[in-house]
């Protein structure tokens, strides 16, 4: 058996669509008895409607950069959690002042603090009918079972500075990773490579040949761990770490 894990934005989902040829390739892959899934920084609720819309079926979904894993039918197989005690201090820190949102991801919904004009979390939540609940600062400390905190910046330099500050101040409990204007914060030690490893262990798929593909910084861990592939649109830093650079998404 072979297992393919593909990043979503910029890899499967390009210019607001999943190409028909890609959908057909995934179908052929699964009909041959192999497993296919998406591994993304997105929440499951914002991923699933788009997969259904474009006709993509997946055997698993690894969301929030490896912090939560879903089975084919949407059951949570694994969930890492950020310590509730640091949520308030982190979310209200001054280095987040320019973020378009502070979004707290749970398995079935997203809570958003200080949403501003241009927040793509709010926009996509409305577009795909995913529960996005606005909260005030006094409700943050009561949140539980949060596996990721997501930020969004209009300028790349702002995102880079936020990552530096967050990892300096909270790096003993969480890790922040920049993905262009987005910043994703996950529990310490959690990334896309650990998500795949956890899936393989839980499903007893350790003997499977693993193929991964991505295009951004948060894909580097799995590309390096599994000898993965990079899209031609990826930055040179990411392409250098890949086994092969692809111009179109394809399976082996």
Automatic annotation (TrEMBL):
A Pfam family cross-referenced in the UniProt record is Hydrolase_3
Q: Any idea which GO molecular function terms this record carries?
A: magnesium ion binding; phosphatase activity
Can you tell me where the transmembrane regions are? none
Q: Which domain of life is it from?
A: Bacteria
GO CC annotation terms, alphabetical: cytosol
State the NCBIfam families in the record.
Answer: HAD-SF-IIB (TIGR01484)
* Record's protein name: Uncharacterized protein
Organism in which the protein naturally occurs? Propionispira arboris
Q: What is the lineage of its organism?
A: Bacteria, Bacillati, Bacillota, Negativicutes, Selenomonadales
